[in-house]
Write a structure and sequence with these properties.
The complex is a heterodimer of chains A (83) and B (154). Chain A has a two-stranded antiparallel sheet with strand order 1-2. Chain A contains 6 helices and 2 strands, in the order βαααααβα. Chain A is 57% helix and 7% strand. The two termini of chain A are 26 Å apart. Chain A has a single domain, classed as lambda repressor-like DNA-binding domains (434 Repressor (Amino-terminal Domain), Orthogonal Bundle), CATH 1.10.260.40. Chain A is globular. By secondary structure, chain A is mainly α. The longest helix of chain A is centred in the middle third of the chain and has 11 residues. Chain B has one domain. In chain B, helix 1 runs antiparallel to helix 3. The longest helix of chain B is centred in the middle third of the chain and has 31 residues. Chain B is globular. The two termini of chain B are 23 Å apart.
Chain lengths: 83, 154
């Protein structure tokens, strides 16, 4: 079985928007410690939380989270082709 | 971008303070229990006195810090309790607590059965029950605080 880890670009996306962890937490309706834990790779968020963060940052979820060893944005493209 | 509502850090700090006080309460109870078990003549009921005193003091401190400006059903409090990181750590701490209680039963059994100089059935039963609660509480609050540590690299 593949040992994939969920990676994220949360810190980069947040920095690009000049947001603090607290501000992003406020936008997503979560606490700052959750943002901190996700950025540090100590927590893999649920789908709900990932969607909230993507909506708060106004980016597709696939640009924010992806499986290790894959590239961001690859999965939605494959998914669309199959359909 | 939408309006930014920055969540209060105070609520989370208060939440962690509550957990730390819970840990201190169970440690106080544990110390009292072990002293009561080791010293003949001390009533087991007295062992809970330090814990009760600490518990009452923590309630007084909680009321003093919160005051009326901080209602219990504050949306920030609810947000913290529903937060994934908090819930994940609570679940982890619950598992650690359960495993610790399981593993501690053997040593506790020997501690309560053989170490007290003059064990009576009542002392043994109370000691075992109280020490089990102390171990569970200490493991829960302690592991929660360990898991909740923040890293600066986040």
């Amino acid at each position: 079985m593949d040992e994939h880890v969920v990676e994220n670009s949360l810190k980069v996306q947040r920095a690009m928007r000049n947001l603090t962890q607290s501000e992003l937490a406020g936008l997503a309706g979560i606490t700052r410690v959750s943002v901190n834990a996700i950025e540090a790779g100590r927590m893999t968020p649920s789908i709900l939380l990932a969607l909230k963060l993507a909506e708060a940052l106004e980016v597709p979820v696939s640009e924010l989270f992806w499986l290790s060893g894959t590239k961001s944005g690859k999965w939605p493209a494959l998914f669309n082709q199959e359909r | 971008m939408k309006n930014i509502g920055v969540p209060s850090e105070r609520h989370y700090r208060f939440h962690l303070l509550g957990m730390a006080m819970g840990l201190a309460l169970f440690v106080a109870l544990g110390v009292g229990m072990i002293l009561a078990l080791l010293r003949p003549g001390i009533q087991m009921g007295l062992a809970v006195v330090p814990g009760v005193v600490f518990f009452l003091a923590s309630i007084a401190l909680s009321i003093a810090l919160r005051g009326r400006r901080w209602p219990r059903r504050d949306p920030e409090d609810r947000r913290i309790m529903a937060d994934e990181w908090v819930r994940m750590n609570t679940e982890r701490a619950r598992k650690i607590s359960l495993r610790t209680v399981w593993l501690a039963q053997g040593p506790l059994m020997f501690l309560v059965a053989y170490i007290p100089p003059d064990p009576t059935v009542g002392t043994s039963v109370m000691g075992m029950a109280m020490l089990t609660m102390v171990v569970a509480g200490t493991a829960f609050f302690g592991s929660y605080l360990v898991y909740s540590r923040e890293r600066a690299d986040g």
